[in-house]
Each structure stands twice: as C-alpha cells, then as structure tokens.
C-alpha cells in the first residue's frame, strides 16, 4: 500500500461526502478506490481523486442524474450542457406553476362558463407520442410538427390528453381531413373556451371538471383541446383553446 493513500473516512471528509456515498459510487463504478485491502475490504483513495469526488458531490447536489455524472467524469463535455438544459427546463416549468398558483391564490378555482355541445365524428390524421406529466408540452409539440404538413387552412387541430395522469402515458394530436385515416368520435361534450397561454389551460380543465361535480355528470376522457388560433401569429395572452370533455350521461 502506498503511503499517499487516504482511508475512506479521511477521504470522505476531504470531499464532503459520506462513507456510505463513497461505497455506493464504488459499487456503481463511478469512484473506484485506488486500493482495497484484501484482508479487511477497507477502501483507500489517492488525494488526486478528490477533484473527481468533489465534482460528483457538487453535481449530485444539483440533482444531476448519476448517468450524466459518469459521462462528465469520462470527459463527455456535452453532458454538462445537457444537465444545464434540463435544470433550465425545470426552472421554466416551476415558473409556469408559480403563475398558475398566483392566479389560484388570487381568484380560487375558476368559475368556468361551461356549455354542453354536440360534436360530429370527424375524419382526421393522428399522431401519438409518449409523455410524462412534465413533458406534455414537448410531446405535444413533436406530434404537431409531424402533422403540420398534412393540415389544411381550415382544418381543426385537436390535442387529446388522458383524464387520469399516470407516470407515463400517450398524448395524441389530430388534424381534420376529409381523407384522414382515423376517426375522432363525436357525442355530447362539456365545453369551455380558455383564453391565455397554453400552459395555463389546466385551470380551465379543472373548471370544467368542477362543473361535472356541480351538476352530477360523469366525465369520459380524454380531455380535448381544440386550438382556435395560430400560436405563431397570436400573442400567448390572446390564444384561444376550446376545452372539451365528453359527458357520459348527458341530461
């Protein structure tokens, strides 16, 4: 054993990590000890490993995933940029959540004006994509991008989202087309128009669901979002989206 090796306890204090964390990172192959005593199994580290250990601790404190940390240690410069982009996206989501929370604090759950309408079945082209509760916008945008070449000037674009949000689910987006290869079912729907940014549509969705509770109806998914104007030419505060939820037992 070299004299410059540090026992795991001293190395842990130097790097502001716990012994348990160091053992875990060793098990993952992330921070491998310089030497392990074959008799006792005790781990020893070189002082030069402290820089990597400190970097691991810093990145983990910022919730950078372990696979990304491993890529950083291997010299993959793009991993840090990806980690930064993920944190920035998370900050953006939290800012949007704060704006919604501010509205709820000021106004409570919206008193949404709801009407029951009947919709015909429509032929459509449809795209589907996997999503999680935090990646709905990205998944929807990807579906929209694939559908835009098939959209006519007067065609309706509709987003379809499950009523029950699981950890993972599919979102669907459709565009109306006479030669569409899919059908968007018709029926009776509770409908309300949301005015404002897309990220605040959940306020109107919850307002429509509150209407179901108030009047004793049963909602049937998925939630439909009918996009009434072009986000490329319309300011976010003026965007209009018709929120529709099928009424299972219309009166």
Automatic annotation (TrEMBL):
Keywords: DNA-binding
Pfam families (alphabetical): GyrI-like, MerR
InterPro entries on file: AraC_E-bd, DNA-bd_dom_put_sf, GyrI-like, MerR-type_HTH_dom, MerR_fam, Reg_factor_effector_dom_sf
SMART domains cross-referenced by the UniProt entry: AraC_E_bind, HTH_MERR
Domain HTH merR-type: 5-75
SUPFAM superfamilies registered for this protein in UniProt: Probable bacterial effector-binding domain, Putative DNA-binding domain
GO molecular function term, any single one: DNA-binding transcription factor activity
Name recorded for this polypeptide: MerR family transcriptional regulator
Organism of derivation: Actinomadura darangshiensis
Lineage: Bacteria, Bacillati, Actinomycetota, Actinomycetes, Streptosporangiales
């Amino acid at each position: 054993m070299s004299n410059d090796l540090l026992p795991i306890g001293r190395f842990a204090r130097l790097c502001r990590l716990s012994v348990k964390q160091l053992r875990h990172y060793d098990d993952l192959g992330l921070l491998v000890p310089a030497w392990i005593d074959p008799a006792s199994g005790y781990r020893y580290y070189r002082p030069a490993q402290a820089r990597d250990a400190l970097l691991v601790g810093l990145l983990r404190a910022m919730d950078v995933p372990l696979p990304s940390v491993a890529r950083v240690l291997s010299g993959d410069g793009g991993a840090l940029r990806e980690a930064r982009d993920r944190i920035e996206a998370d900050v953006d989501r939290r800012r949007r959540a704060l704006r919604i929370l501010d509205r709820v604090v000021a106004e409570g759950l919206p008193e949404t004006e709801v009407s029951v309408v009947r919709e015909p079945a429509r032929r459509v082209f449809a795209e589907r994509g996997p999503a999680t509760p935090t990646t709905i916008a990205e998944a929807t945008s990807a579906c929209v991008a694939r559908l835009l070449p098939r959209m006519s000037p007067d065609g309706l674009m509709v987003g379809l989202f499950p009523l029950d949000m699981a950890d993972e689910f599919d979102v669907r987006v459709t565009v109306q087309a006479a030669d569409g290869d899919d059908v968007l079912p018709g029926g009776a729907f509770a409908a309300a128009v949301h005015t404002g940014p897309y990220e605040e549509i959940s306020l109107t969705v919850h307002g429509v669901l509150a209407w179901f509770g108030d009047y004793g109806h049963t909602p049937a998914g998925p939630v439909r979002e009918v996009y009434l104007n072009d986000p490329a030419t319309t300011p976010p505060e003026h965007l209009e989206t018709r929120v529709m939820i099928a009424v299972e037992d219309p009166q």
